[in-house]
Structures are given as structure tokens and as C-alpha cells.
Amino acid sequence: MNQLQNILLPEPTLRRLPWYLAYVEILRGKRVKYVSSTRISRALSVDASQIAKDLSFLGVKGRTRIGYEVEDLARALGDFLGFTRTHRAYVIGAGSLGKALIRDSGLSNYGLEIVAGFDVSPAAIGRTDLGVPIRHIDEIYDAMARTPAEIAILTVPAEAAQESADIAIGAGIRAIWNFTPYRVKVAEGVVMANTSIYAHLALIYTRLASMGQQ
Amino acid sequence: MNQLQNILLPEPTLRRLPWYLAYVEILRGKRVKYVSSTRISRALSVDASQIAKDLSFLGVKGRTRIGYEVEDLARALGDFLGFTRTHRAYVIGAGSLGKALIRDSGLSNYGLEIVAGFDVSPAAIGRTDLGVPIRHIDEIYDAMARTPAEIAILTVPAEAAQESADIAIGAGIRAIWNFTPYRVKVAEGVVMANTSIYAHLALIYTRLASMGQQ
Prior knowledge:
Two copies of one chain form a homodimer.
Chain A: H1 2-5, H2 11-29, E1 34-35, H3 37-44, H4 48-56, E2 68-69, H5 70-81, E3 87-92, H6 96-103, E4 112-119, E5 134-136, H7 140-146, E6 151-154, H8 161-170, E7 175-178, E8 191-194, H9 197-210
Parallel strand pairs in A: 3-4, 3-6, 4-5, 6-7, 7-8
Antiparallel strand pairs in A: 1-2
């Protein structure tokens, strides 16, 4: 598995794999034993040959006329995507969204363990009701020595986004998951993922407006 | 403005506009009066001519040697993206993520007002501690008559995603914001936006693994 994971998958494939997993998990819940790429294709509107190609990256091969074994496929996808291992994260910015993510226990089902939150506001620091300690951002170096994390989830105000990312990376964080609308820049070798919830909201609003019924 | 909004913007432009807004808001906070596309370009690593082109969609034009007026640009972007108007939404699925989004008061700064939550679990229904009522999904028709919403935020388990979307659309919802890993299908004319947080997690995990240091 480790060797396979060292292949840098194309991003579109990486985006589709969680769809396959979600669908296969549903089948597993229904005690379905086998699934063909044709059936996945119909359910998800993805071309069957694309599915077979995507899954071949995982080293999973379907059998002629039978398809993929549901159990095997679910396990292979979960393992490949990293959901079955624990990855430690800090939340930087314990405001509204930061607290919400800390509280979202569902993320742990996908291998994400949030071990600490950081902020600069005296009102936030020292809170203990969220399940993880909220500490001053200056303590991130100390935290990295004691309960290290690989991922920093960035939920600070936009104006603090770049500086917060720089501090986290300086302390040894290797991946930034950016929820701010600011376009954070990182050095090569640091993993960067943007979850642009505001861009998605704008997309919804403008599409609704363009339908002329708002 | 309405007329401009009826232009269906290309999605890449729509993704960049919130970056510009976030940056311009920072400048506004610093009492900066004017900003050139070159300066925005340097800050965000977007080509200056692309920025000028994107902003021309809004009918905003910079002045030679002076650039854009920061106040005007911030207002034009906020208006155009729909952040300055209120859009009502329901949260379908008051589990961990659903509750987190209901609690995330920051979304209201971007024009999103969550007015009700829906679930099927007796443990969730009737809760009043989240600030909005949590009702049984069967009551969505009644809710649409009394406190209508345009947007349904989908935070149910994957196996309930399609059915929940169908119910919401049947009740009159016009846009689905899908947070589930399931690839929900909707009829033409219904707005669909996917926020694939699990895909982003997978991207982070696999990129970290491919760097061979995990």
C-alpha cells in the first residue's frame, strides 16, 4: 500500500475516489457482495471505463462478469485515501467555523484527529468545553514538541491567514487546509488544500440569481 | 446590478472573485484608498490582466495609474457575489457537521441565514439549543409555506443524500449545497454545489504520503 500511495494521483481521480467509496459503503450496508463498474457508473454518472481506470491506480481489479468485491473495494479505497489511519491536526483560529470543525466529530471517521486549537483572543484561549485545549498561537512550537500534528486547519480571519500559515509551517506543520477566503501562499513541499466555502456560496447565489427568480 | 448578475460567469472567475474580495477587505481595514491590479496580482499570484478581465464582468473599471477605488471595489464584489443580501437555507441532517454549520454564525456575514434544520432521528428533532428549530424532514413542506428557503445544505449520511435532496427539491428548494461524499443528481434548473471536504482530506493525506515522510 505504501508504495502505491507514493504515486501522485491526478486530482480529478482523487476527487472521484471518495464518491466511489461513499457508494460502495452504501452497498456494503445493504449486504451487497459484488458491484460492476457499470453499476457504479449508473449510480454516479461517471464513465465506466474511467472508473476502471481510476480503480486500477489502487491495484484493485474487477473480475469479468462479476465485478469488484464490495468489501475489498471499500477497504482498498478507505486505505488508499488515508481514511483508515489517524492524522493529527491543529485548528488555527477558534472562531465560529474553527469551533464548529473542532466539534464535528464526524471528521474522525475520515481519519482526522484534531488535537488542539490555537487563537490569539483571550476570550478563546483556555476554553476547555470543546474537547481539545485552545492555546495561544505562540505556544504552537511547544505543542509540536508534545502533541505534534501534521495538518493545520486554517479558520482565522482572512487578514491573519498568511501569517498564521507561516507560523504553523515554521513550527513544523506540513499541510495547510485553508478554509479562509484568502489565497495563502506556501513554499514548495508544503501540502495546500483550499476548501472555498465562500466561493461555493457565491456560486450558489449567482446561479440562483442568473435563473432570474430571486 | 441585476442585469449584470444574469450573466452566467465562468466558474474559474467565480472562484477568484472571493479572493479579490478578501484581499480588498484587508486593504479597506488598513484604510488603503486605491489598489492596482498589479498589486492584487502580486498579493494573490493571479495574472494582472486576468484580474482586470474578471473585474470587468462586474462593470468595475480601474483608472489609469490610480487603479481601483478600494471602497467601491469591495462593495461591487460583495454585491455581485450575493454576500450583501440575505439568502435563506435549511440544513438537512442535524448530525455532527449539520449542527456545526448551524452554529457557524460566520456564514451570516456572507449572506446565509439558516432558518431551520431537519432530521429523522428522534434524538435530534425538537432540539432548541442550536438557535434554529430542528424538525422532522416530513415537515419540510409545512416549513416551506411558513419560513421558505431557497437553499438546502445537505449534511445527511451518504446513503440518505439522494433521497433527502429529492425531498427538498420536491418541497420547492432551488439549490442544493452538498457536503456529503455522495454524488447527488438533480434535475436541470436546480443549482448544485459540492463542498467535498472528504475529497480535500484525501488530497491532503495522499499528498503527505507521497512525500514519503508519513
